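Supplementary Note 3. Input sequence used for the single-chain structure prediction.
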Amino acid sequence: MTRKADGDHRRGTAPRLTLGLRLAWRNLWRNPRRTALTLSAVAFATLILVFMVALQRGSYGAMIESAVSVFTGHLQVQAQGYHDDPGLEKTLDHASGLEALVAGVPGVAAVASRAEAYALVSSPSRTYGAAIVGVEPDKEPALSTLPRSIREGRFLAAPGASEAVVGRTLARNLSLSLGDELTLLGQGRDGALAATTLSVVGVFESGTPDLDRTTVEIPLRTFQETFALGDRAHAFVVRAHDLAYADEVARAVKRAVADRPGVAVLTWDQLLEGLKQGISMDAAIGWSLYAVLVFVVTFSILNTFLMAVLERTREFGVLLALGTRPAFLGAVAMAESLLLLLLGLAAGLAVGVGLCAVAAHYGIAFSGSEELLARWSLPARIYPRLDLFSLTIGPAAVLVVTGLAALFPLLRVKRLRPVDAMKAA
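The predicted structure, written as discrete structure tokens, is reproduced below.
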């Protein structure tokens, strides 16, 4: 008897499910205008969320890539504590060998040594304090946009030449022109006087005011000789093949230098904490606006579901009086809600993905701003980044919040009493 009852139950479940879905689909289109408006609201919210999240992630990626390309790199290998408290004595020993080790790590696209010190720089008429940065002229173009930001003259050419490139603001403050002599006066690592005379061969404009106002770049070998560093450097600037792999490359570099004491590996967000905080603040504002959009759509959906239940209260009462179970009516109402939501989500996803695909191929241009953006090393076009996160987070939020809103009419259906429901107007 038990097996027979179970078989009858299974045979009866499928027809009830089919009947429930048919009733739900029919009920959706009893008021086609209201259903169409609700579908449009869900689809529009989904479209906006998919596209805007993808655009937001793409713009953040472009912003980070632009910032790290100027000077910082995707990550840096430094002496322990150098980032928090820079000092001429905090160096990485045997720099050439350690640089070769880092260059061999999988995922590293480019790496170069740098050294930095603060000194007085003088022209024939003025003296200012400046950051003196020693770079490898042949490797720096793969890591920094400064060699491409030269507005006058050229970038450094010879590894050990007595030449320098100067930020535009600093050059103006010092009244320097191409070919002028720049005198450098500081203290070496050994405590002795560090002094040399350099020829200005280029003036750069990076778009970063601090760099343009305070920075002088000279060949690394010249820096090491002037400041008595020997075969030492303060940092190895590393560039990954893609920003998305920077954390993975950083972990690989940490493993490669694990046996070297006093070595730290820092990623771009540790080096540029202000940029990370700015992006976090902007993202918080964006997510707040998205939340408002979702709740507006949720109340629209709730109104639709509630009206659909109130209009059919008398009908539900008759069905309950005829023996229809409240659970079945509740399931039909829930099926209506889910069908409406899923249709809207599918339409919004389709249009959103299509729009993102077009924008990702052609980019979103800022007409008339190309020259200004290029001056600040920013891309003239932004490309949305459509990945699993941007594709799912918006639709999931809409589905969860509006699905919870649909529970209210469902609970109302389950609490109906046949006599009271049939008396409803």
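Residues 1-11 have pLDDT under 50 and may be disordered. Residues 81-261 form one domain.
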